Amino acid sequence: MKINLKINNINRDIDVEPGEVLYDVLRRCGFTSIKKACGTSSCGVCTVLLDGMPVPSCSYLAVKADGHNITTIEGIKEEADRIGKFMVEEGAVQCGFCSPGFLLTVIAMEREIENPDSQGIKNYLAGNLCRCSGYEGQLRAVKKYMGVSE
Ligand code: FES
Ligand code: FES
């Protein structure tokens, strides 16, 4: 069956299988920034933005995304670079496997919540697991990026 996705502001008609998940479709279309770890909606590594909101692409049926806007890291390179600088400065990037999903979630948070505090940031990012860091570096980086002191 054919679905229409607006991926990073470009409309595409794509043939998908009824049970195919968004992760597989996007990777097949060349969006290889998207990674997969758990495959069960538990780790956030495969996060993409659907109409601006983070969703786990490993468990999201592609047919449900028909007619919607999808954002991947390829579509927000400048914002990702800006946040990435803070991540590097705070030693928050190690293997980098979780970074695409993490950065997309930070961008969604920035657009959705005005002036979050530390706890608000932790709550929003709770679904994005990292197997390398102790999360403190990530938190420092996001707080600096967003200008949050508490
Ligand atoms: S790979 Fe999708 S949530 Fe873990
Ligand atoms: S930096 Fe390795 S999983 Fe997060």
Distance between the termini: 50 Å
Low-confidence stretches: none
The CATH homologous superfamily of the largest domain is called: Beta-grasp domain
Task: Give the overall pLDDT as a whole number.
Answer: 96
Major beta-sheet overview? 5 strands, mixed
Total beta-strand segments: 5
Bound molecules: FE2/S2 (inorganic) cluster
- Could you give the order of the helices and strands? EEHEEEHHHH
Question: Can you summarize this structure?
Answer:
The protein is of the alpha+beta class and 150 residues long. It has helices spanning 22-28, 77-89, 99-112, 118-125, 136-146; strands spanning 2-7, 10-15, 47-50, 53-56, 69-71.
Would you write up a description of this structure?
With 150 residues, the protein is an alpha+beta fold. It has two domains: 2-74, Beta-grasp domain (Ubiquitin-like (UB roll), Roll); 76-146, DNA polymerase, domain 1, CATH 1.10.150.120. The protein contains five helices and five strands. The chain has helices at residues 22-28, 77-89, 99-112, 118-125, 136-146, and strands at 2-7, 10-15, 47-50, 53-56, 69-71. It has a five-stranded mixed beta sheet, with helices on one face. The protein is elongated, with a radius of gyration of 15 Å. Bound molecules: FE2/S2 (inorganic) cluster (FES) (2 copies). One FE2/S2 (inorganic) cluster (FES) is lined by residues 36-39, 41-46, 56, 58.
